[in-house]
Write a structure and sequence with these properties.
With 533 residues, the protein is of the alpha/beta class. Helices cover 38% and strands 14% of the residues. It folds into 3 domains: 37 residues; 208 residues, no CATH class; 198 residues, Leucine Aminopeptidase, subunit E, domain 1 (3-Layer(aba) Sandwich), CATH 3.40.220.10. Helix 7 packs across helix 9, helix 7 packs across helix 12 and helix 8 runs antiparallel to helix 9. It comes from Riccia fluitans.
């Protein structure tokens, strides 16, 4: 075959083998599909598209400002909170963000910045080293995004898509990010460069990862200062020595079934599935003191999540999820592209590095210095730390003891604890277990089911992308600020972990007196009864 193309008035012939032509076409289609998927995140990034090349780039004035800050205070003259605030406001104005939240509450942002930075130990190092390093990271965002797309395609090998994109409601998939790209994304958040309220946000309800709320909350909550200390420490470390690994963010969907083409989707597994389960309960141990993040790579670590990943991490929240996002700041990146979780969804994050130690909880939370994360890495460069984000019912009251509510919680935990390969092979998983009729409804990874009699099969993804832990490390999920019954929630988690094939549950009670009955029950002191009081 030959193809011709005109170039400056001349005809250019290119000899191409038919097989090569087919491969080239497939590669072109893959690149087009990747670009289309990446375009979903573009409105949420602080960049603009070049009208000629189509590449994302900085607004010129913002790029120049960041480069000046990157050269240090002798060039940028930023050696005070006032100067930094002026720079942030000017950059946002240059990007056209004159009427958004940050601009409207500029004075509150200034007050918070002043109170935090003027009292910061090592402020000189911050202005001379950390802040310029953060600006250099932010400037590199366009190049890092381009490199990310190429690397994500290489790792995926055409089997799936790992590129940065919006992962919406009922849309399973994985995003694999380099730690350097995450650092650049978070640096942009510190400078509050992400667009504010966009009309498109109504569709996905995804919020920018600007740090403005963190600074604004400084005068009102002392733990805000401690949260910011964790984040500044993170930037100090990555600016000193950038880690070279990756972090994956996966939206997991528990398949549903459709009883007939005209009927709505059912919850699956349903009440009958759970009632008829023959799986024995796995072993369970109550750990009175200690932390879930200390369980190690052999355990899937539970994030007591908000339906919006990260909850109040970038606001005034400071309980289990928010604290985890401060000591493992790379988790924050997921807030940029993960829409709220539905009842049959969970989010699993593998590879996030811990940078800080802490003490206390909620209003008593304190940054407690550096943490050296020695967790081994896998073939993709991810630390073998797997965190599953599952959101419990909020304020369920007496309704949490109703069957429908308990099934909801069972399925939420089950989705979070179930290994990836089991979800992708859901037909086989359920066919061989308690519910033979499940195969008639053909669960798939899409979360949306076809009509009765669908016999589609789903391929299991590459093992290199998925880690399987032997146990689950959890605790008082949904039993604190969310108002759940601790005894009920602990048993539901135990059931879900057992059904998902876990060998052991480590239950961290954080010294909660309500967990003592659970501990006594496990050790056979007396039978456990659940009361709503």
């Amino acid at each position: 075959m030959s193809a011709s193309r005109t170039n400056t008035g001349r005809s250019l012939k290119v000899d191409t083998h038919p097989a090569d032509c087919g491969a080239t076409s497939r590669e072109s289609l893959r690149r087009i599909a990747t670009a289309t998927q990446f375009s979903s995140i573009e409105p949420y990034l602080p960049l603009q598209k070049d009208s000629t090349s189509g590449d994302l780039r900085w607004v010129e004035s913002v790029e120049n400002a960041l480069k000046d800050v990157g050269r240090g205070p002798d060039t940028s003259l930023i050696c005070s909170s006032q100067a930094l605030w002026d720079c942030i406001i000017e950059m946002r104005a240059s990007m056209g963000h004159r009427k958004d939240f940050t601009a409207q509450y500029a004075e509150s942002l200034k007050l918070g910045l002043t109170q935090f930075l003027d009292a910061l130990e090592g402020a000189e190092k911050f202005y001379s080293f950390t802040l310029p390093g953060m600006a250099k990271l932010a400037v590199q965002l366009p190049e890092l995004l381009k490199a990310h797309a190429e690397e994500a395609n290489r790792v995926a090998g055409g089997r799936t898509t790992l590129t940065l994109r919006i992962l919406s409601y009922q849309q399973p998939g994985m995003v694999l990010l380099q730690q350097s790209l995450i650092a650049a994304l978070l640096a942009c958040g510190f400078f509050c460069l992400y667009p504010g309220a966009l009309r498109e946000r109504k569709k996905d309800d995804i919020h920018p990862i600007n740090f403005d709320f963190l600074f604004i909350g400084v005068p009102y909550a002392r733990n805000q200062v401690q949260k910011l200390k964790c984040l500044i420490h993170y930037f100090e470390k990555v600016c000193s020595s950038m880690p070279q690994g990756t972090v994956s963010f996966e939206r997991k969907i528990l398949p549903r079934r459709r009883p007939s083409p005209i009927m709505p989707l059912d919850t699956f597994p349903d009440e009958e599935y759970w009632k008829s389960s023959k799986r024995p309960l796995c072993s369970m141990k109550v750990v009175e003191y200690g932390a879930i993040e200390g369980a190690g790579p052999d355990y899937l670590q539970v994030d007591f999540a908000n339906m919006y990943l990260g909850g109040g991490a970038l606001n005034q929240g400071c309980v289990q999820e928010e604290i985890r996002f401060m000591i493992n700041p790379e988790l924050i990146a997921g807030m940029l592209f993960m829409s709220p979780m539905a009842d049959n969804e969970a989010i699993e994050i593998t590879g996030a590095q811990q940078f800080s130690q802490y003490k206390g909880y909620a209003s008593n939370f304190i940054y407690a210095g550096d943490f050296v994360d020695s967790t081994p890495t896998d073939s993709l460069g991810r630390r073998k730390t797997c965190i599953t984000a599952i959101d419990a019912l909020c304020g369920p009251g007496e309704a949490q003891f109703e069957m429908g509510m308990m099934v909801r919680e069972l399925n939420k935990a089950f989705c979070g604890f179930l290994p990836h390969s089991a979800i992708c092979g859901a037909v086989e998983f359920w066919k061989s277990d308690n519910c033979p009729e499940a195969s008639q409804h053909g669960p798939s990874t899409s979360g949306e089911e076809s009509s009765q009699g669908d016999s589609r099969t789903v391929s299991t993804p590459s093992c290199s992308m998925h880690q399987v832990q032997r146990g689950v490390a959890t605790g008082n999920w949904g039993s604190g600020a969310f108002g759940g019954n601790l005894q009920l929630k602990s048993l539901l988690q135990w059931m879900a972990a057992s059904e998902a094939g876990s060998s052991k549950v480590l239950y961290y009670s954080f010294g909660d007196e309500r967990a003592k009955r659970l501990q006594a029950c496990l050790y056979g002191y007396f039978p456990m009864t659940i009361t709503s009081r």
